[in-house]
């Protein structure tokens, strides 16, 4: 039987399903009896709930962060769904498919990786080609690289998001390197593929996506440079100047100091990397925001960070009379 | 005989050539006799000079803004070239090729325009196609559109620069509209072609490039919207919504209020237009800056507006061992 | 019988009155029975409420945005008033006075308009006088102009607010044009009357005040310029320079790019318009904020946008010993 | 019997204790009967509560701002503690120890003051020494100076906080004046001791810490300068230049106009005062934030004002293997 | 014989006139002989010059800051006027009219002061009226108040500028206090007259306008508050609240912390004072800028601080067809 | 014979000395004969000069960047010194003391280094102590560390400046770690000593101080982290957490992203490092600015970067009556 996801719940129905127990707080009714406020989640979202009965037994049996099998009734409370839990039992992690509980890319990870490898295989700069051979031969690196999200919240914030974002940028970078003369295609492509490798350690993404200690202390730019430094040592006679130009791509890819880059882009390739990164992140972030907005009408709710509503209504080309 | 340009002058040589007299100031030597400080220019730059003899006759004969035939000796003064003028006579404008005195695109204007027309000819949205038919049929508009610079100083600041910039963006926009699903290719392309049409009136570009009165009072965004409004009236039954979405492309193409857009981009097409415009302007501006830098070494002088030096040294891919 | 308004409700009383049903959400009690959370509003404010009984019948009969006749008991819940609804039935719009449901100016709209017309009638610049004759002769324009609010939230955010704000500015502009020599009184007055005409289309103000699609895509500055362009065509031989100076008043009236003006004020009249607009808006906004603050003491609550508390205590001149 | 503080309450226990009644709101149950929502506080924090019974009698007997004797049961509601009040009676202020209700420094106030006096006693600049003799001889001033908090919220926000902050800065200033040559130790120390004297009137700190009317209208910088002006008149022949240099320390101690200083620091002593003030405030503020964070793990919650999480985990020097 | 001013010099003429010797530097010709570069100034501007002969005698006789009688020939050098000095002798200050050397208001100082006194004479708040009686009775204060400039550079930067600026604001404040209900006219007027009194000591304005030591250390806001404090003590029983509200006018008149006000305006009168001050300063500053621009055309040069060109061309109302 | 430095030159004297030829430009006199404009420099400053005779021979013999022996006469030109060169011959670098041509610390470099080593020798955290043993054992590192300046322009911009700045901070950090409880003294000291090690490669400081290619591409923060990474590998079993906390000190020492730190300080030690660094840099920078100002009076010229004049006048404690 396929899992019923949070996004599929409707008021008035009954559920019998496994969720992640994200939060759990005990409270007391006026008569002095305890009850539980809980938050249940999976990769499609989260929902609040209450447990009125058998509270003590349940409290003893499940902890925050556990996977739990829940029998419950779905209702509405103050305009939101609320799950009234009848029973809740712990499920061992090995019995669940972890991927049900963290949102993931809908694209084929194997194909995306193969496409990136094909691109680095076409590089004409021997030292860069050798560098990527070293990266792709590192199984632990590849395993993390294909699984990491590209961010905690803003864009591509799901399992495989880093790879999806990187591949989209790589395709754009080939187009753009062909459009402008005087651009070093291999250097640009190398910068694109490496610019966010530090995300594999800046973030943790086992049961939920959050920053690691190392991520908070150092940032993915610093971590990525350290990872690159290590791999550069494995390529014999990597030219010092090329190493500095490549590191500069990572150092400067946020565009300005105010956004966390210690130096701004100073080569044409670094300038292009910054634009491609911003454009691809922004497009993905807006499309996710529009896609997740359940409201009617032509406009999304106000986007606090980008400080505007986005238009999601029809374009004339959609219609016969356009 | 081909003209000898300012950029070709060398200390120690003699010249016999036509320039624009950009500035002219009288001064007095210690012995009480007058002399002239002058600035001569053409499309390749400007040079300072002095007139020691026959000052009164020359002053009476030539005015600032005149084209002048100059016989002179080129020397150096405090590290710069200085022209010591022996004689200077006014030349009627009809005897000079105005294009020698304003920098212009090196690309073929006719081909660039044809390529743009071909693109609008492939539009599938009837109302947009009809709109561009109206624009291309307006000879006065086309004449200005193919001649206007894209800016006074920053990027594509030469005759034909607007067309060159627009075409480059149009090509990029076709690539990018193909890369991301859900983008209205015709709306994006229309926005690209129209985003800077107001530049044709914001700037004056007969003998030099500067702002017009209308440009200073209204800005090219406002002027462009007014030009679009006029053309929209010539297309029967242009859908109101499409008109607003198209105007929004012009309104928002600077990206933020701080950069002069009354509203930020709120459609995916307007977001893309803003990125493509910024990227193409920035790339052109850096390449011009690097190309015009005569200094040795791997770095340009400090760029005050962009607040950095740019790297112009070799990349490893340039070299055999790369 | 006069309507009892939201602002007049007191805990412990019963009501039998028509409101706008602003929001409606179903929820479920522990026993599984549904209830409704509702928000009722009129021009004096809004109040939350609950419906415990006959929920299904009511849900079927009324929708958000309907006018509803409500019988209920007013109580307090967590420090705010709460309406416990006994019955709720839909009322056709034609049976209500729409003005009861949107806050409106307390001033006489006819007199305010007459005063503005008297001022434009005294203009000595023929082309400007002719322009306003065209505006005042446009009944659809006048109908919108006297009804539009000046903003959604910040100041004069009520029906007729635009007219009230404009007239106050017009009176100030006559004083100030008389105070400083060298100010073109007619140009300043014309700018004052036209600076916000785009608000008539930027906002919607039938049942509530919000932005229109056109408003979000273009902003009132752009819309106002388009409206002015249209009217200018109806005045024969309107001098081009005067048209540009007048448009510049609208373009620059927000003072800086950061506040949405593509160009800053560059004429003395545009500079004055910006100051008069800011002063009148700020004064109105503070007075509204103070007037609506029900708290005791000498200070309003913290004003988040203006980042301060405002003093509302006595001045010494109020008191005998002052 | 020692008082049981808010910070010591645990769900499930009964209490019989005096608190400050910070807030009180009446509400109604579905059956029409009233109940009370209350907030109780003391120097360790605040807790929400409800009164279900005898509501009318209690409402008549106690007002916001009263000290109240409460008998109640502690429970949990939506993840927070909630006090279910059985009875509540007013307690006259003279029967309570006011210090139980406002957080205070844990250091010995008398010793701190003595240390400051010892430091001013060692001054070698006669006029400054005489100035502090005048301050210390002013009993009303000293009483306020040793009791005032250093801020409402940010740092040293407790009774005696101003003195604690000032003494810490004074000790640092002696070290630093010894470290750098050319620093006028007496001028720096005088600036340190006086920089925040205006806080004694900017804030009110009887039952809670908040701004006074004078504080909101003038700021502690202005008030402090006025207090200094008054004392300067009591010192015969105080040199005018020294008075200006000393006032400059107060004027500029926030470092920049944006932080409220009309002039930035222009003497080496004023520059040092600004750094010492910022460092000591920041260190105290972070340590308070870490100390009050009850959460597990190595990181505090996000600090909105300082825009980061703070690390509170172990350092290697804490551990045997460090 | 009337003085010939710097602004009246023309190339080719001879002069025999007194100036202020603003700068004096010795240099050497190639032949080893010394010469002098000098700067001469009066209230209309300054001009550079050279002394070729008798250099040693002149150096011994005149110093920077002296008034000097100059015989010379006026020529042009690199586009500017240059004075070739034949002789230069010191003139004792008592033999010159100091007002020839500092720019001054063109308005009647006595009448301006009388108008201000008339306005304070009409005050209905006894304590404020008494306060101004005390100010006007202080001869030293009045002497400085009618002579001080309002700024070093930006606006009303000439002798009597403070009075001219204050009176203009006072007249505006009466209009505006009459326009808006609920404004305390006396408090607003008092704030207007006192807001910049600190300028009398912040600036020095004997031979040139510059900041005083006290001005640099404290700012005119702080100095003005101290002057007010002193006068307040001379008015028996001045109400404490009124004193604070009046001081708040001075404290907040720059509008924001970033512009040097420790607190922003929090009363309606303080808000109005800030707008009136900004408007009057800006109008004066633009008009001075336009008036002093000798260039042809419709536009001033770029104004660096205000970041724009100003339009100085015709308005249609100027012309017959307007 | 001791060298005569640029700072010691006086108009009217003759010189016979070695300088660095910083700039060299040929120009032509009116008679067509060439001459040279040159700039000569040493560690005390630079001076402009001219060569009138034997120009061609000299041009052939010396290049920019050479050390040159100069015989000349010192005069004044337009208020500055000017050297009239009679003869100029190249001097091989091995014949000059390079230290005469770059400004250097006046403190004893050996003693400063010894003091730092003594401090690290007292560390109680074994892994940190071992880390510094590795650094001090690296002769190439130490040679660069004791010679590097701390900046190109702003503070400690001279040979040995990095060491002087670091030692001053180290002494302060010991005081402050003793003042506040809960500070890890060893971690703070380690951060202080390492925070700017990247400067040894970010800057070049052989004949003049400027940025290296690596410095412009990567910044000293990134370079320093890479140097630390390398040394950490030489310490067996360096705890991972300690490595991250130590790197965080370097990463965050500029305090905010806007100043080039990818992450802000998140530990109490990193917060203190940032304050100590800013304070020590600022104090040094102001003292250098005051020391190098030759002007009379109580104030320095306006400091563009710090946006103020600095007071350099007397303090009362300097005088008998203080």
From TrEMBL, chains A, B, C, D, E, F:
Answer whether the UniProt record assigns the keyword Signal to this protein: no
**Positions in coiled-coil regions:** none
Cross-referenced SUPFAM superfamilies, in alphabetical order? Answer: HD-domain/PDEase-like, Nucleic acid-binding proteins
- GO BP term, example: rRNA 3'-end processing
InterPro entries recorded? HD/PDEase_dom (IPR003607), HD_domain (IPR006674), HDIG_dom (IPR006675), NA-bd_OB-fold (IPR012340), NA-bd_OB_tRNA (IPR004365), YhaM_exoribonuc/phosphodiest (IPR050798)
Q: What is a GO molecular function of this protein?
A: hydrolase activity
Whether Hydrolase counts among this entry's keywords is yes
Question: Keywords, A to Z?
Answer: Hydrolase
Span of domain HD/PDEase: 158-291
Q: What is this protein called?
A: HD family phosphohydrolase
């Amino acid at each position: 039987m396929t899992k019923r996801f949070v996004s599929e719940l409707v008021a008035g129905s009954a559920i019998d399903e496994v969720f992640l127990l994200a939060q759990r707080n005990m409270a007391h009714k006026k008569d002095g009896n305890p009850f539980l406020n809980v938050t249940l989640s999976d990769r499609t979202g989260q929902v609040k709930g209450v447990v009125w009965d058998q509270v003590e037994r349940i409290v003893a049996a499940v902890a925050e962060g556990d996977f739990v099998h829940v029998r419950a009734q779905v209702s509405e409370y103050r305009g939101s769904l609320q799950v009234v839990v009848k029973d809740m039992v712990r499920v061992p992690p090995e019995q669940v498919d972890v991927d049900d509980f963290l949102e993931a890319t809908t694209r084929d990870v194997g194909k995306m990786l193969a496409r990136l490898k094909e691109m680095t295989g076409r590089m004409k700069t021997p030292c860069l080609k050798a560098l990527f051979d070293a990266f792709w031969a590192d199984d632990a690196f590849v395993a993390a690289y294909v699984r990491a999200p590209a961010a905690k919240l803003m864009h591509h914030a799901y399992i495989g998001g880093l790879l999806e974002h990187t591949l989209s940028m790589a395709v754009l970078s080939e187009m753009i390197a062909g459009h402008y003369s005087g651009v070093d295609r291999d250097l640009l492509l190398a910068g694109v593929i490496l610019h966010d490798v530090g995300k594999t350690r800046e973030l943790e993404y086992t049961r939920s996506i959050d920053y690691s200690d190392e991520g908070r202390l150092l940032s993915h730019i610093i971590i990525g440079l350290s990872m690159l430094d290590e791999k550069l040592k494995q390529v014999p006679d990597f030219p010092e100047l090329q190493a500095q130009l490549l590191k500069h791509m990572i150092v400067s890819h946020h565009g300005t100091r105010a956004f966390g880059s210690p130096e701004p882009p100073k080569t044409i390739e670094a300038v292009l990397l910054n634009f491609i990164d911003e454009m691809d992140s922004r497009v993905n972030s807006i499309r996710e925001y529009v896609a997740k907005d359940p409201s009617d009408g032509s406009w999304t709710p106000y986007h606090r960070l980008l400080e505007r509503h986005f238009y999601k209504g029809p374009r004339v080309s959609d219609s016969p009379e356009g």
